[in-house]
Specification:
Length: about 425
C-alpha cells in the first residue's frame, strides 16, 4: 500500500508539485530532489528570491518548517527584508557554488514567516518604487550624470532602497546619493548592472515568441561573439542578431558546439575538386545535413552540384593520387531538383495572406465551375421538359380540333337529317 505522503494529488504527483511548481518566479529552479524523504531537513540552507532577479541564501537556524513558496522575513543590513522561498534541501549548496559564493562567507539567517504587519509595510514600500524611479531619473538628469536608473527596489521594511543603474563609464554619484537620501529619507545603495541584467529585470517577449531567457532561467551571462553566428552560417545582420538588450542574442551560444562538431566532418572550404570536366569550387554547405554544393565558377554559382561529405572526401583522395573522376556525383546518382526556398519570403508579413488568397481564389473558381455546371444541367433539364410539353401540346390541339370538327359535322348532319325526314314525311302525306 502506498503511503499517503506520496499519493497523487489532483491528477499530478504531490512530489512534482513540490519540485517544479508554477513558473511564477523568475530564475525558478527545478528541484529534482524534492521526492527524496528528509531532503528539506538534511540541509538548513534556503534560497530566497526578492524582486525580479535578486536572490539570496540564508540559514534556517530556528529550524522552521519552511517549504517552497513560503514568504519569510530574513535578516538585512539594516532591518529585515521580505522574500519568497524558491529552493530548499541539498540543491541549495550547489546553487551557491554555481553563484560563486565563498563557503566562508557569513550567511544571514531567517527570522520568521511573515506576519500581517510585515506584509502591510512591504506593500507600502513596493507602492513607492515606480514614483521613486521617475524622480531619481530627473535628479540624475539635473546633475548631468551620464547614467540611466533602470529600476528601484525597496527593502521589505522600507528603510533602504536599491537603485540599479546602467552606465558606459565610471560615474561619480556621491552628490547623487546625498540628494536622493534627502529626497526619499531612506538609506541609499547603488548597484551597476549591464544591458543583459536590465533586460532580465524588465522582462519581455523575444523574437521566438517565448519569454526572455535572461528573465526566466539564466543566472550567468556568458559573452557572445559574432564567431558563433559564423559557425552557424547565420547572416551577420546586426538587427537580426541583436536581442531586446541591443546586445548579441544569448541563444547564439546554444547550438554552437553542435555546429562546430558537425563542421569537423566536412572538408575545408579552400579545397577544390578536380574532375575530367573541370575544376569545382566550394560554394555552400549544409552543416547539419552533411551536404556540400560546388560550383564550376569561383565567383558565382554555375553548374551547381550538391554531393555528400563522404563523396567529397573520396574525390579529394583521388586527386591526391593523381586521379580525376568523370563527374562529381557517383555513377547512377540522380541530381536533386529541389525547389529553392526564398528566405526573404519567410519574413514577409503577408506570406500567409497570399496562401489564403490563393486558396480563396481556387475555392471561388471551384464554386463558379460548380454553379456553371449546375446551371447547364438545369437548363438541359428545362429544355427537355419544354420539349416534352411541346410534343404533348400539338397532340392535344389536334384532338381538340378533331373533336370540334366532329361536333361541327355532327351538327350539320343533324340539321340535314330533320330536313330530309321532313321532306320524306311531306312526300308521304302527299
Amino acid at each position: 500500500m502506498i503511503h499517503n505522503k506520496f499519493k497523487l494529488k489532483n491528477g499530478s504527483g504531490n512530489l512534482s508539485i513540490k519540485g517544479c511548481g508554477k513558473q511564477d518566479k523568475q530564475l525558478n529552479t527545478y528541484d529534482w530532489l524534492a521526492d527524496i524523504p528528509g531532503n528539506e531537513e538534511e540541509v538548513d540552507l534556503v534560497e530566497v528570491q526578492f524582486k525580479n532577479t535578486r536572490k539570496g541564501y540564508y540559514k534556517n537556524s530556528n529550524k522552521l518548517k519552511i517549504e517552497k513558496g513560503d514568504i519569510v522575513a530574513v535578516e538585512a543590513n539594516p532591518g529585515h527584508d521580505i522574500g519568497v522561498v524558491t529552493l530548499t534541501g541539498r540543491l541549495v549548496p550547489l546553487q551557491m557554488k554555481k553563484a560563486n559564493l565563498k563557503p566562508d562567507v557569513e550567511i544571514k539567517r531567517i527570522y520568521r514567516k511573515v506576519k500581517p504587519v510585515d506584509m502591510e509595510k512591504y506593500e507600502e514600500a513596493k507602492a513607492k518604487e515606480h514614483d521613486t524611479m521617475i524622480r531619481s531619473r530627473q535628479i540624475a538628469l539635473n546633475l548631468n550624470l551620464a547614467m540611466k536608473i533602470g529600476d528601484v527596489e525597496y527593502q521589505g521594511d522600507g528603510n533602504k532602497a536599491i537603485f540599479y543603474y546602467i552606465a558606459d563609464e565610471r560615474v561619480d554619484f556621491r552628490q547623487l546619493i546625498k540628494v536622493l537620501a534627502e529626497a526619499f529619507r531612506v538609506r541609499i545603495e547603488m548597484k551597476q548592472i549591464g544591458a543583459r541584467q536590465e533586460a532580465g529585470r524588465i522582462g519581455g517577449i523575444g523574437p521566438c515568441g517565448r519569454e526572455l531567457c535572461c528573465a526566466t532561467w539564466m543566472t550567468n551571462f556568458i559573452s557572445v561573439s559574432t564567431s558563433a553566428a559564423r559557425f552557424q552560417d547565420i547572416s551577420l545582420n546586426p538587427q537580426k542578431l541583436a536581442g531586446q538588450c541591443a546586445k548579441l542574442k544569448c541563444c547564439l551560444n546554444y547550438e554552437v558546439d553542435a555546429y562546430v562538431e558537425s563542421q569537423k566532418r566536412l572538408p575545408s572550404k579552400e579545397i577544390t575538386l578536380e574532375t575530367i570536366d573541370g575544376t569545382f569550387y566550394f560554394f555552400k554547405a549544409d552543416i547539419l545535413k552533411g551536404t556540400i554544393t560546388y560550383s564550376s565558377d569561383k565567383s558565382f554559382l554555375a553548374n551547381a552540384v550538391t554531393i555528400s561529405a563522404r563523396r567529397a572526401f573520396e574525390i579529394i583522395n583521388m586527386n591526391k593520387r593523381g586521379e580525376k573522376p568523370e563527374m562529381l556525383k557517383e555513377n547512377g546518382q540522380s541530381s536533386e531538383n529541389n525547389k529553392p526556398v526564398d528566405l526573404v519570403e519567410q519574413e514577409s508579413l503577408t506570406r500567409f495572406d497570399k496562401r489564403k488568397n490563393s486558396n480563396n481564389n481556387n475555392n471561388r473558381k471551384k464554386k463558379k465551375k460548380q454553379t456553371n455546371n449546375n446551371a447547364l444541367l438545369d437548363n438541359s433539364a428545362e429544355n427537355k421538359d419544354n420539349m416534352k410539353k411541346n410534343e404533348s401540346r400539338p397532340k392535344e390541339g389536334n384532338n381538340k380540333n378533331k373533336n370540334r370538327n366532329k361536333q361541327k359535322s355532327g351538327h350539320r348532319d343533324g340539321y340535314n337529317k330533320p330536313e330530309s325526314k321532313g321532306s320524306l314525311n311531306n312526300e308521304k302525306t302527299d
